[in-house]
Design goal:
The protein is 57% helix and 0% strand. The chain is built from nine helices and no strands. It is flat, with a radius of gyration of 37 Å.
Length: 224
């Protein structure tokens, strides 16, 4: 079956496909304050069977934040409240889920992000950048010694143990610090190029045909 590109929906068609206000989220919300929305969710979550299902979800490894986001976005789509109210009730709902999970003895997490590991990886990438800069500076000054060798060993260890994400962090940190990660093209082009002899000096006197005419003679006098 041949699919024609002319049968595809046009931009904005979904906004005019139905009567305005036919969808729940297009109508006025039922709950207009944070207190009303929070009381609505607390009433739902006070059901033992409902909260047990949520705790099973957390025990299986689901973070609290995505669960709460899905919960209040469902309320927005059903026209219970608007998105602003959902964002405001998110934090109390997250704290509620955490308190209930503590009472159940569940080892929960708020998000999949490991902030401590991200900070350690960023600091490690920054250290690798500084060590590389120090080695390059020592080579340029011609003061390579035992300390430079130790720095090279440290740099080799850090580079070998860095992941792709950490390497990208190191490049980003180099851009922020203003330290070049590669030699500039001009320096690379000049490597291995021998110094050329200076060009020969040009004669200071102009050639005969370029010499000015003698004083006191005009254009007609030159041909005589």
């Amino acid at each position: 079956m041949v699919v024609s590109i002319f049968n595809a929906p046009i931009p904005g068609q979904s906004l005019t496909s139905g009567k305005p206000g036919s969808r729940p989220y297009e109508r006025a919300p039922e709950l207009n304050t944070v207190e009303e929305a929070l009381a609505f969710y607390m009433q739902k979550l006070s059901d033992q069977e409902v909260i047990d299902d949520f705790m099973i979800l957390l025990e299986s490894g689901a973070p609290i934040k995505p669960v709460v986001e899905s919960l209040y976005m469902s309320g927005v789509m059903r026209g219970k409240h608007n998105l602003d109210i959902g964002l405001l009730v998110a934090l109390p709902l997250m704290e509620f889920f955490a308190a209930v999970a503590d009472s159940y003895g569940i080892d929960y997490k708020f998000t999949n992000r490991n902030v401590k590991k991200e900070m350690e990886d960023r600091e490690r990438a920054r250290m690798s950048l500084l060590i590389g800069s120090a080695i390059e500076k020592a080579k340029q000054q011609g003061v390579e010694d035992e300390g430079t060798g130790i720095l090279e060993q440290m740099s080799t260890y850090l580079s070998a143990d860095m992941t792709r994400e950490e390497t990208q962090m190191s490049e980003d940190a180099a851009e922020e610090e203003g330290v070049p990660t590669e030699a500039p093209p001009e320096a690379a082009d000049l490597q291995g190029v021998t110094a050329e002899a200076p060009p020969e000096e040009l004669p200071t006197e102009p050639p005969a045909e370029m010499q000015p005419p003698p004083q006191g003679q005009g254009l007609m006098g030159r041909g005589q």
